[in-house]
Amino acid sequence: MKPIPQFLFLILCVLTLANISTSGGNSINSTQPEKKPVEVANKIVPVLSVGDGIRIGLVQVSGPKEYVEKVKAVAAIEGDYRDLVRYRALVPIETEKIVENITRVPFVAVSGVVDLKVS
Amino acid sequence: MNRKRKRLLSVFALLFPLFLALLVPTVSHGVNLGDILKGGGIAVIVKNYGDEINKAINTLLQNKKIEVKEATKVVPIISGGKGFYSGAAQVTGPKELVEKVKVVAQVESTVGDARIKLLVPISARKFSDAARVKGVGVSALIDLKVSKL
What we know:
The complex is a heterodimer. Chain A is α+β, with helices and mostly antiparallel strands. Chain A is built from 2 helices and 5 strands. Chain A has helices at 6-31, 65-68; strands spanning 40-49, 55-64, 73-81, 85-93, 109-116. Chain B has helices at 2-23, 33-63, 95-98, and strands at 71-79, 85-93, 103-111, 114-122, 137-144. Chain B is an alpha+beta fold.
């Protein structure tokens, strides 16, 4: 068997490397889709007391736009710890009817508390 | 007897203004003794019981099947204008961001007839836009039970 001429060997090497680098690039691009910046939004919604469903205030919620749009109210669930502190968990929810089981809207949290001036 | 009475009265007269000075609100700064004591109480409670309070809130929500899926932490709320702790909050968000949060700054702004107390998680003890931790929000508000403070 004749040995491959040197110039042919070099051409083959260059072509092979070029092929690997382009196909490798494509595979990286296909596994890492372009990251779109998350559009952040905020909104003011009523706070509902869990149990009786009474409106007890207003809060501002914020998070990714698609999730914030789903939020209709914030459910307030009260509890206390060792008689030292009282806490109010604020759960963003999709409905104002909180008699049934409530479902949390993920990735949304409270960013402000609204006080209405009573004149 | 009269001497004793006089001595008592003079001691009382000396100490009473001092006592009043401690109790009367220092109007110039809008901060009173109650605020200072409350702030101290919050600092102590968050430092010593913060993790337990965080767990208690998460357990309550877990029992109702509405738990927070992301990381949570209890931090004090610092009142923007006055610079003392006015309460505490549970913050939620991605773990690496929640870990950065030191306090929640309460910044007041007025929109029409409404006053909004913005709750901004920050990575420093003093509020600045640079210290703001974006992507973290408040999931619970915590208050001391001692109402007189």
